[in-house]
Amino acid sequence: MRWGWVTLGSLMLVTGCETDPSKGWVLGTTYSTDIKTIAIPVVQNDTFDREVGYLLTNALIREVETRTPWRVTGETVADTLLDVTITDVKLRALSQSRLTKLDQEVAVQLTVDWNWERMDDSSTIAGWEGMGTAGMFFPSNPLGEPIELGRLQSVELMARAIVDRMAESW
């Protein structure tokens, strides 16, 4: 009797699923199966923060390769192209010490424009202008963290957000 309920529940679960993720619950991947490869060229950096473009490029490649079924390849053989431009990097003080008036918490705000398009017909799959993230670091004592921690956190959050939006486009 017990196995009967388990079988019935499993059958109801499977028959209640859709094959198209935009129409309901899906068993399997929610990513497009017609896309196999994606090209991610070095992120264009329109700011004076020199390292952030390379950090974001590496973070995007890691996110795509670990969280999606797509492989990152060169532009000549890829099905799609992810074009990213960093438009702004700002530091914003979030709090100050009452005694020293030095910044205790600082946010590294990162703003990008990105476009994901098919290589065969140059049609846009997804994109966003002015997408922003912020990573924090604590520069004052006792922690004395370097700006690189905030920059790295902001870049990792941005890569995750972009890949999330790429997955939502289906």
Describe the protein in words.
- By secondary structure, the protein is an alpha/beta fold.
- The chain is built from three helices and six strands, in the order H-E-E-H-E-E-E-E-H.
- It has two domains: 30 residues, no CATH class; 138 residues, Double Stranded RNA Binding Domain (2-Layer Sandwich), CATH 3.30.160.
- Strands 1, 2, 3, 4, 5 and 6 form a six-stranded mixed sheet that branches.
- Helix 2 packs across helix 3.
- It is globular.
- The model has no long low-confidence stretch (mean pLDDT 86).
Tell me the layout of helices and strands.
Blueprint: H1 2-15, E1 37-39, E2 44-45, H2 52-67, E3 71-73, E4 80-96, E5 103-118, E6 124-137, H3 147-168
Parallel strand pairs: 1-3, 1-4, 2-4
Antiparallel strand pairs: 4-5, 5-6
Helix pairs in contact: 2-3
**How many structural domains in the coordinates?**
2
Instruction: Label the overall shape.
Output: globular
Could you say what the CATH topology of the largest domain is called? Double Stranded RNA Binding Domain
State the CATH architecture of the largest domain.
2-Layer Sandwich
Overall structural class, as computed from helix and strand content, comes to alpha/beta
Order of helices and strands: HEEHEEEEH
N/C terminus separation = 41 Å
Question: Quick summary of this structure?
Answer:
This protein is an alpha/beta fold. 31% of the residues lie in helices and 32% in strands. It has helices spanning 2-15, 52-67, 147-168; strands at 37-39, 44-45, 71-73, 80-96, 103-118, 124-137.
Comma- or semicolon-separated keywords:
alpha/beta; Double Stranded RNA Binding Domain
